[in-house]
TrEMBL record:
UniProt KW keywords: Carbohydrate metabolism, Glycosidase, Hydrolase, Polysaccharide degradation, Signal
Keyword Protein biosynthesis: no
One term of GO molecular function: cellulase activity
Family per record: Belongs to the glycosyl hydrolase 12 (cellulase H) family.
Species in which this protein is naturally found: Mucilaginibacter frigoritolerans
Lineage: Bacteria, Pseudomonadati, Bacteroidota, Sphingobacteriia, Sphingobacteriales
PANTHER family: BLR1656 PROTEIN, XYLOGLUCAN-SPECIFIC ENDO-BETA-1,4-GLUCANASE A
InterPro entries: ConA-like_dom_sf, GH11/12, GH12
Protein name in UniProt: Glycosyl hydrolase family 12
Signal peptide (UniProt feature, chain positions): 1-21
Keyword Oxidoreductase on entry: no
Length: 250
């Protein structure tokens, strides 16, 4: 299970005031010479404004070094050196806290553009959405490489997909996803894998959540919308860059 942060006022103040040294490892050229913020701390968190936080989030067992930089909530990245072993090591991400009643939401939509390694890594670019006080986790995989698989045990029991689903945007039909359901031992996990892997796009998240509700789930709250890179291995160090990203909730 990924580390989920519930921010206190004291923690936010500390993160905002602390001046952190630049990480010694190389970072992407997109960070330019001086990013607005950078860190190599395990759970480094930066208040990027407008309700967003950037998180380094190195949470998995056996994790290696990872440095993060950010110019804004929309433009950030990591240089990550994770060993070639199984298990997720980190989930650096842009975190947007919603904390609203689901029935009152009309639009939940997001756009993204990333640059990721084409080889040498086991990782995915993915949304991580939390509902019902973190009882439900919804992952939306947009691209992936290497030996990574969705959680697919529990409800369907045998690791097979339960459905296919076509995302409906406000103007047209979007990509088709293969849907898996499982449990990580703490919460239910729905995983949507894009059948046409992409490095950029727009996602109607509200429609995805409505689709899950059509399968018998009732969402009472939308807690968080996160987008980032779930990294299992990147031996020797690789760049994962978020060129642009935004979430719209109303």
């Amino acid at each position: 299970m990924k580390k989920v942060f519930l921010f206190s006022i004291a923690a936010i103040a500390m993160a905002s005031c602390q001046k952190e040294a630049k990480a010694p490892a190389p970072v992407s050229a997109n960070a330019k010479v001086e990013a607005n913020w950078s860190s190599s701390a395990q759970y480094a968190t930066w208040n990027a404004g407008s309700g967003y936080y950037i998180e380094n989030n190195i949470w998995g067992s056996g994790a290696g070094f990872q440095s993060i930089w950010a110019n804004s909530y929309s433009n950030w990245g990591v240089w990550s050196d994770q060993p070639n072993t199984s298990g997720v090591k980190s989930y650096p991400n842009s975190d947007y806290g919603v904390h609203q009643t689901f029935s009152g939401l009309h639009t939940v939509q997001s756009s993204f553009n990333v640059t990721v390694p084409s080889s040498g890594a086991a990782a995915e670019s993915t949304y991580d959405i939390w509902c019902n006080n973190y009882a439900y986790e919804i992952m939306i995989w947009e691209n992936w490489t290497g030996a990574v698989n969705p959680i697919a045990v529990g409800y369907n029991g045998n690791g097979t997909p339960i459905a296919t689903y076509t995302n409906v945007t406000p103007t047209s039909g979007g990509p088709t996803y293969t849907v898996y359901v499982g449990s990580n031992g703490t919460n239910a996990v729905y995983s949507f894998l894009n059948n046409s892997q992409t490095s950029s796009g727009t996602v109607n998240i509200k429609d995805i959540l409505n689709f899950i509700q059509s399968k018998g789930v009732t969402f009472t709250t939308l807690d968080k919308v996160q987008f980032g890179f779930e990294i299992t291995s990147s031996n020797g160090g690789l760049n994962f860059d978020c060129n642009s990203y935004s979430a719209t909730v109303n």
